[in-house]
Design goal:
By secondary structure, the chain is α/β, with parallel strands linked by helices. It is about 35% helix and about 15% strand. The chain has 6 helices and 4 strands, in the order H-E-H-H-E-H-H-E-H-E. It has a 4-stranded parallel β-sheet. The longest helix is centred in the first third of the chain and has 11 residues.
């Protein structure tokens, strides 16, 4: 669920000390639990965070595209949603190292690392369960 990624990664890191944990989170979900960066940094957890930044809540946008004619109120920057202007600076402010490449992120050391990947706000997810449809 949206907002669970960072907290779930912390639980996995504590459950398997010393092992690398990779958390792939969306920008919207990350904002729901951004305070967890402080916990990750304080405990020097070996969590590698890949933030998919589309400047939107893409799952909500998919619903709005299907049933609301593509009016993205409060789910996109154009629709009024606010996001940090510099995610790397935000991560660093909590004490999490920012990586510039995937190789650097994964093989840097046993400290927490953060990598931002920018993607198109209108990119859709292929695994969406649609209202009224069975889960196949």
């Amino acid at each position: 669920p949206m907002g669970y990624g960072l907290g779930g990664a912390i639980g996995a890191a504590f459950a398997a000390p010393g092992r690398r944990v990779v958390a792939i989170v969306g920008d919207g979900g990350a904002l729901m639990s951004i305070n967890e960066l402080a916990t990750i940094a304080r405990h020097k957890l070996n969590i590698k965070i890949i933030l998919l930044n589309n400047g939107a809540h893409s799952m909500c946008m998919a619903t709005q595209r299907q049933w609301l004619g593509g009016n993205y109120y409060a789910t996109s920057i154009d629709g009024g949603l606010g996001f940090p202007h510099d995610w790397g600076m935000l991560a660093e402010s909590f004490g999490v190292r920012v990586s510039l490449t995937l190789d650097e992120l994964l093989y840097d050391s046993s400290c927490p690392n953060f990598l931002e990947v920018k993607i198109d706000p209108l990119e859709s997810l292929a695994f969406q369960v649609k209202y009224g449809e069975p889960i196949a």
